Amino acid sequence: DSDLSMRTLSTPSPALIFPPNSPGFQNGRGSSTSSSSVTGETVAMVHSPPPTRLTHPLIRLASKHQKEQANIDRLPDHSMIQIFSFLPTNQLCRCARVCRRWYNLAWDPRLWRTIRLTGETINVDRALKVLTRRLCQDTPNVCLMLETVIVSGCRRLTDRGLYTIAQCCPELRRLEVSGCYNISNEAVFDVVSLCPNLEHLDVSGCSKVTCISLTREASIKLSPLHGKQISIRYLDMTDCFVLEDEGLHTIAAHCTQLTHLYLRRCVRITDEGLRYLMIYCTSVKELSVSDCRFVSDFGMREIAKLESRLRYLSIAHCGRITDVGIRYIAKYCSKLRYLNARGCEGITDHGVEYLAKNCTKLKSLDIGKCPLVSDTGLEFLALNCFNLKRLSLKSCESITGQGLQIVAANCFDLQMLNVQDCEVSVDALRFVKRHCKRCIIEHTNPAFF
């Protein structure tokens, strides 16, 4: 009787998406769909809402009896919506096919703040088109409730799918397209230009993405008032192999509000790119340049300009970083909580000493595969960093049980210790377990249980 009920009679509903061999298909066809299946792929299907009543009296009687036995039908609408809120997008669309009541509940706007699609075979471009069309029916061509789109791992996503999002979802705040290697700069530019509230962007593994910027049209339009700024705060460009210093310069100039930036395995980034970054992005709290082999101590000097704002830093496997770079970080970034320096073989006990004495609030430290760090460095850590919770010493060949005992005797809150491939005795491991009762020890000593 409501407007909603009347509207759903003539509105198609997308059910995402059954592979051809799923229970929803018989002999390669869906029993209640209006679109055909494509062999070997998953597609978006459109179906009408379930009928209100069944015409055959016997079938109607059986249906009524089943309804009386179904306890879930006794739940109020708000409880059903709460249950539906935990379902991924494709399952929510399946629920819309059960009955009219579930159809109406499944399309409650509160459930459509997020679209989450997964799977390498899904035709995600078509799925996004069908979903946004359904969600835009109350506000033509604009989907005001959708804030999050997660399509990570959907390798069939192309620029066409991102164009759909950009055109229909102006209130988008979070977009994750990691592993979607078919998307290009142009589509990403469209999203950041047409979705001014976008704060979280994950394009990790998108090898064609070399920059984050506004489109030329948006840049001209916004320049007088907004200074060509993008509101992104969280940006993950891990494994964007073709990102270079010039691209990082453009990103920094447009995304000045960045607080979280991950550039893992962006192998073309150098110290010059980090210099550009520190000129514009002075609010960065978390930064990762792991496996950026051209980053050196000069880059650490630039990063140190973040001072007390920096809380998380990963420089793993940056072989050009030595004690000099660590001293820069320790001297200026006194509120550092997490440091991953695994594989930085130029770090010695002197660097660890300076770090321990200046970053006393350190909670997590990874100095695995640093062969020049010994028990002396561990002693400095134990006597200064009492809040240490996670410590990785994997493959530190100069570490012995004596250093571990000093750490365990002073860092009672230790929760994780990695001493794999280290020459430490069983007695030392038992000592750690005795003093740090909540500590999980990762080791390769078969005699210790």
TrEMBL record:
Output the InterPro entries linked to this UniProt entry: F-box-like_dom_sf (IPR036047), F-box_dom (IPR001810), FBXL15_LRR (IPR057207), Leu-rich_rpt_Cys-con_subtyp (IPR006553), LRR_dom_sf (IPR032675)
Q: Does the keyword Signal apply?
A: no
Taxonomically, the superkingdom here is: Eukaryota
UniProt cross-references to SMART domains, sorted A to Z: FBOX, LRR_CC
The pathway that the record names for this protein is: Protein modification; protein ubiquitination
What keyword terms does UniProt attach to this protein?
Answer: Cell cycle, Cell division, Cytoplasm, Cytoskeleton, Leucine-rich repeat, Mitosis, Repeat, Ubl conjugation pathway
Question: What are the residue boundaries of the F-box domain, all occurrences included?
Answer: 69-115
GO cellular component terms, semicolon-separated: centrosome; SCF ubiquitin ligase complex
Composition-biased stretches, type Polar residues, lie in: 1-13
The protein's matches in PANTHER family, at most eight in alphabetical order, are given as: F-BOX_LRR-REPEAT PROTEIN 7 (PTHR13318:SF50), PARTNER OF PAIRED, ISOFORM B-RELATED (PTHR13318)
Function text: Substrate recognition component of a SCF (SKP1-CUL1-F-box protein) E3 ubiquitin-protein ligase complex. During mitosis, it mediates the ubiquitination and subsequent proteasomal degradation of AURKA, causing mitotic arrest. It also regulates mitochondrial function by mediating the ubiquitination and proteasomal degradation of the apoptosis inhibitor BIRC5.
Partners and quaternary state? Part of the SCF (SKP1-CUL1-F-box) E3 ubiquitin-protein ligase complex SCF(FBXL7) composed of CUL1, SKP1, RBX1 and FBXL7. Interacts with AURKA; interaction takes place during mitosis but not in interphase. Interacts with BIRC5; this interaction allows BIRC5 to be polyubiquitinated by the SCF(FBXL7) E3 ubiquitin-protein ligase complex.
Q: What is this protein called?
A: F-box/LRR-repeat protein 7
Instruction: Please tell me the species this chain comes from.
Output: Aphelocoma coerulescens (Florida scrub-jay)
